[in-house]
């Protein structure tokens, strides 16, 4: 089919109808309620299979300068940037048994980052580390988080296998009291929350799932004792076994090829197919990527962000499937942002989208030999309705004799589980093992959900304050009534597909706030007027909701219901947001500070770490 065939007015109208039908086929009345939390099922679904034995540590009642909740890239980068700003006692509190966050938990076979390693791994300039592959395996990424933490001297004070259970502001001493599930109740002048946005695993509420007699586990708690092998393969425990996978998102697409290699028979229970583009992973020479030159990684990362944010750049340094789809990623290009001509934008956007998705569907036909399987593997929705995926082995796996695709779209997923296996369309598929690649709940682990109670000035509960008036922050980081509490990776800031870049910019910003407060004997707390001004900026942008409202259900759009009310992100993209923050730090940082009522009880002496000024 030519570009004109796909983008003619008739073709676009037909496509719109098809997308609407496919969406309607998939929306479930129970929406997000279809999922279960890990503790809703008997078994060990949430347990940490990777943790060293940390039982028996003494509860802590001491005082630190900064407590960081979460030891993923957000927390580690916050720690590293605070160290760079001279903060001495930094305590990261982490639920997992080590640093790494999502890369600690997700160790499933085949795991790689789908963003180029040279822009995804943060602090490459500072650590001198150069990844070998264009797309790095998960273990290399996890080790890099550990590297940054150790070079920044963050291990000694860190608490692992520990969850923060409450944060309470002490009005008298102007400190936070941090309580944990291990009996700790220590004090911190500042708290940074870096709890991740997709860290609470979710299980499918398939009727009878608790009756299944085989082994079941979520991809973020991989059971290598059962499967054998490592993330690199060698899953000898699955030889001769019938293995089912539920979920064909970014995780499912990565885990299917190694399972297909290892299992006696693999059944892939698909509800909505992913868009699967070319991966072309390869070893990279330092020369190819300009490594070694001072600032090479920062320059490459900025270039990628500008392109995927729709800002454009003279050269495309990364040149992969993300940058090729830049026009479709942030939905609204700067020219349209400025001109406000939505109709013109939508026409251009829809045609580009149709051509891109047609390429992706044509690839399925080229790769998959069985026409019926190929038909079922084709995605019928707009690009980036679901997170785009990339693989040179996923579609190919369906050409193997031991792999069966079971389409469950008409029954909204597996109908029910029995003791022996899964039932779809009245047919029972016997299974020895069911792997759940069913993803994560959005934002539930953060302070926004109320799972981590936060009591600010005067004992006011953050979640109550936000329930009454809606979330209120300055730049997504800080809020009135909650002094010296800084959120990373949350709502009302900006996001991007390269999330570690976002987190690093936010870590730099958090460190600058702390450094400024220390230098001026102040606390970090914006006025209500500064919050109002920021909310007005958020509200004064183009509306992205039309896009999500027309998409197939998934976690991007609350399972087809559209996004929650109210602006949740800076509307002009992450690159523009970072520019705004830099400018604000130079001109207006005082807006987020107010004087302390009494001097801070203990002084900080600079700590050891990777030397980099916060605004490097
Ligand atoms: P997703 O939420 O993206 O996908 C979950 C999958 O499970 C979907 O295919 C969903 O189908 C399916 N599913 C859920 N319930 C059922 C059911 N009852 N029956 C059949 N299918 C079901 O989770 P992922 O873990 O794949 O990805 C989550 C996010 O993690 C990604 O979007 C990305 O942000 C991140 N990630 C990043 C990677 C990287 O390389 N950077 C790699 C992997 C993940 P349906 O679509 O119909 O709801």
Tell me what you see in this structure:
It is a single chain. This protein is α/β, with parallel strands linked by helices and 616 residues long. The chain has three domains: 3-30 and 203-279 and 342-438, FAD/NAD(P)-binding domain, CATH 3.50.50.60; 63-200 and 442-595, FAD/NAD(P)-binding domain (3-Layer(bba) Sandwich); 292-334, no CATH class. It has 22 helices and 22 strands. Strands 2, 3, 4, 5, 6, 19 and 20 form a seven-stranded mixed sheet that branches. Strands 8-17-9-10-13 form a five-stranded parallel sheet, with helices on one face. A three-stranded antiparallel sheet has the order 1-7-18, with no helix packed on it. The chain is globular, with a radius of gyration of 24 Å. The mean pLDDT is 91. The structure holds NADPH dihydro-nicotinamide-adenine-dinucleotide phosphate. NADPH dihydro-nicotinamide-adenine-dinucleotide phosphate binds at residues 26, 113-115, 198, 204, 206, 246-252, 269, 271-272, 387, 408, 413-414, 437-440, 553-555. Residues 1-55, 592-616 are annotated as: Disordered. Belongs to the FAD-binding monooxygenase family. Its cofactor is FAD. Keywords: FAD, Flavoprotein, NADP, Oxidoreductase. It comes from Streptomyces zhihengii.
